[in-house]
Design goal:
Elements: H1 6-29, H2 36-66, H3 68-71
Length: 80
Amino acid sequence: MFNLTNPEIIARLVAAIFVGGIIGFERERKSRPAGMKMHILVCIGACIIALIQCQLTSMTVDYNFAHPKIVGHYQPIPPD
């Protein structure tokens, strides 16, 4: 149903690194704690968690469509 390809995964990780770098650079420039490296790592971690959630949801939905009786999705009997 919804599977991420390798280029999509790489693009999302690069975007997370870029956004984390921008936020971290701004904080380092103002001499605040948690600078560039910290924000890049946090953004990469959040991105990986989101990618795992997308993959698990996709696998669950695919399984539910493939095995409707196991997960309890019975078709109602039409009235006569």
